[in-house]
Amino acid sequence: MGSKSRQLHIFFFPLMAHGHLIPTMDMAKLFAERGVKATIATIVTTRNVPLFSKTHGINIDIQIIKFPAIEAGLPEGCENIDLVTSLEMAHKFIKAAKMLQQLLEQPLQEYQPSCLVADMFFPWATDVAAKFGIPRLVFEGTSLFSMAAAHAIGQYEPHKKVSYDFETFVIPNFPGKIKLTRKQLPETIQLEDR
C-alpha cells in the first residue's frame, strides 16, 4: 500500500490594509498558479472586495473572518487600517487585531494547512502555528528598498525642495532615478512638513 501525499496548502493571513492585502493576494496567486492550494483568511469589507474580485479564474479560497470592531470599541465597519483616523482609533484597532488570534484558530483547525503566512503585525501567529504543528512564515510588507528610500529622504529632505505636493523629486544617492511627489510620502512625513 502506498501512501498518498497531501497537497501543499499555504494559508495566508494579511493585515487589513491595502499595502498588505495586495501583495498577499499576489503571493497567493503565484502559489495557486503553480498548483499549490492557497487560502486567504481575511476580513472582507466593501473597501477590500475589489481586491478579491481579481482572483476570478484562479483557485484561491477566501476564508472570511469577522473583524471584532465593535467589541474593541471601534465604529461598525471600521475593518481596514485605512479607516483609522486618530491615535485613539489606532489603539482600538490594535486591540481588535489581537482579538483575531482566537478567530484565526477556527479556520486553521478546519483547513489543516501545511504552512501559515501571517503578517508581521500579528506576532501571536507564531504561537497559533505552533499550536497546530505547522511552520509560520512572516510577511513583512516593508522591504529593505523602501526602508533605504525612507532613510535617504529623511537625511536629504528632497521633498522640502519642491514647490507643491505633486511636483516630482528624485531620491538622492539612490540607484536609478526614482521619482516621487510629496503626496506619495507617508502621511507622517507630510504632517511634519506642515
Automatic annotation (TrEMBL):
GO terms for molecular function: UDP-glucosyltransferase activity. It comes from the Eukaryota. The keyword Transferase applies. Gene3D superfamilies: Glycogen Phosphorylase B (3.40.50.2000). Keywords: Glycosyltransferase, Transferase. The keyword Transferase applies. Belongs to the UDP-glycosyltransferase family. This is Scopoletin glucosyltransferase. It comes from Quercus suber (Cork oak). The gene is TOGT1_17.
